[in-house]
Amino acid sequence: xxxxxxxxxxxVLKCSENGEVRIGHVVETLADEFELTQEEREExxxxxxxxxxxxxxxxxxxxxxKAGLVEPTRRGHFVITQRGxxxxxxxxxxxxxxxxxxxxxxxxxQGLSNDNKGAITQEQEAAKTTPxxxxxxxxxxxxxxxxxDILSKVRTVTPAFFxxxxxxxxxxxxxxxxxxxxxxxxxxxGDNGIDGVIDQDPLGVDxxxxxxxxxxxxxxxxAGDIRDFFGALNLKKAQKGIFITxxxxxxxxxxxxxxxxSRIVLIDGVELAKLMLRYNIGCRNEDVLYLxxxxxxxxxx
Length: 301
Description:
45% helix; 301 residues; elongated; 5-stranded mixed β-sheet; single chain; 3-stranded antiparallel β-sheet; alpha/beta
């Protein structure tokens, strides 16, 4: 299990007790000390740009620095201070956010004043997530709520609007490539269980057929629907089909699709909502937040 950043504070401090250390070496040393598996060492943050464990080690070092227990020396390196050495001597003390709060530098970093000691709640003191992890968790909560809302909206639109929506989504995802007017909903003209089609080439030789079921929650797509769609694809001599529903697929429907091969891709309501958010279909960007960090190269000049 990957330790949280507060648990890492004392180990990070201890790594520096004998002199200057490189943060990358500290990450490797502590990964061995905590006996992390290769999978745990390589686990990435949702951004996919940094390992979770390395990120937490960096945050532990940052908090220690803000409290004056360590200080940077040169790029990627730091040393322990006398305050840090004193903290290590008190082996009974737990070094965490609550411990660091005794130092004025740390309170300033946290936006506190000497007469506002209650500004950090007990819940915040006990938090196990780093600030950027908290931000991403909040982002995930917002998106989860939005997915629920957008799926509810989709279930209320007309069948024709739903079919057009699905075609627009698939085109936004890159299906149809650069073909002009590549996708179209068939609406009432649809036959043999086909609701839409996307041309993958200008002549329409390679086509993807779409089945769209606007079902209420709990009204799951069954194996019979999958077999009917498969039959429709055979009549069209089609090689590719996408079955989308606002509900879910029964286990027998999923098994049937698997048994018929990879020709039919299933997208349920949850996945549909995620895709709509990802490709801005039925939603829009309200605000953009940028996570920034120090440009070390700038200060090396």
